[in-house]
Amino acid sequence: MSVVIETKQLTSVRAGRTLFSSLSLQLCAGEILHVEGPNGAGKSTLLRIIAGLLSPQEGQVLLFGQPQYEDPELWQRNTLFIGHKPAVKAELTALENLHYQSQFDGAEDVDAWHLLETVGLLGLEDLPAQQLSAGQQRRIALARLWYSTAPLWILDEPFTALDSRGIKLLHERFQHHIDQGGALLLTSHQPLTWSGERLQKIRIEPHDEALGYE
Ligand SMILES: Nc1ncnc2c1ncn2[C@@H]1O[C@H](COP(=O)(O)OP(=O)(O)OP(=O)(O)O)[C@@H](O)[C@H]1O
Fold first, then answer.
1. Cβ within 8 Å of residue 82, ≥6 positions away
2. pLDDT by residue (tens digit) across 157-171?
3. How many angstroms separate the alpha carbon of residue 14 from the centre of ligand 1?
4. 24-35, pLDDT tens digit by residue?
5. Which UniProt keywords apply (predicted)?
6. Which residues line ligand 1 (CB under 6 A)?
7. Integer CA distances (angstroms), 110 to 29, 100, 116, in order
8. Quick check: 214 pLDDT over 50?
9. Which atom of ligand 1 is nearest the CA belonging to 157?
10. Dist. CA 46 → ligand 1 center (Å)
11. Which of 12, 27, 39, 48 is 20 to 30 A from 96, comparing alpha carbons?
């Protein structure tokens, strides 16, 4: 399988604390990498570095063998990052959010009504997002996964606030993505249901430099 994303010897120091050092990983097409670790260990930091939103103190990130920042267009086309806070516009309705987000992402021919139905928000389309529950807002943010063509998804705590149906829906979407040859890097405090070779795990431990694949 071809390598989608690779980090070489990453070190991150925040607020004077070394979160991880010399962290090297590889994620191939058709694989999931679950980043584990306790609160504050540095999981979101790692994802943000890989997404190009933060710089490491040392080390390098490669996408399809190309160094980060060398080709921003390649990066933008091939990666999708969804952070742990749902990035929805509070004053816009769910439908307006989906229109706005898909336009911002440059996605063409997105049927926002269909998307709304897919993520289970039909009937709530006219409410401003700020009047929706946490799980409903999360569903708006995650709707991007149904039109994204990026091979690499980087998702920080995507299951947060979702009910069991939402979690199942998301698992199915992930399965589809990796079946299509996509790659998925995520954090989650909830266990994932996958098993076998397609799921890798890496654990970040605070205070020391213990990192390892399971
Ligand atoms: N903007 C920031 N400036 C300085 N330090 C930060 C900033 N954001 C986070 N940190 C610190 O970096 C460390 C790692 O934070 P991070 O969010 O990566 O942890 P995490 O493993 O994702 O935690 P959680 O499981 O709680 O989401 C924490 O000690 C945090 O205080």
1. 141, 142, 144, 145, 153, 154, 155, 156, 158
2. 999 999 999 999 999
3. 8
4. 999 999 999 999
5. ATP-binding, Cytochrome c-type biogenesis, Membrane, Nucleotide-binding, Translocase, Transport
6. 14-15, 19, 37, 39-45
7. 25, 11, 11
8. no
9. 27
10. 10
11. 48
Q: What is the position in ligand 1's atom list of the atom closest to the CA of 17? A: 29
Please state which of the four CATH numbers 2.170.150.20, 3.40.640.10, 1.20.140.10, 3.40.50.300 is assigned to the domain occupying 3-86+150-213: 3.40.50.300
Q: How many residues does the chain have?
A: 214
Where do the domains of the chain lie? Answer: 3-86+150-213
Q: Position 208: which residue type?
A: D
Residue type, 91: E
Mean pLDDT along residues 102-110: 91
Which two tokens mark 199?
Answer: 């799921």
The CA–CA distances, whole Å, from 199 to 41, 148, 191, 202, 210 equal 21, 21, 12, 10, 20
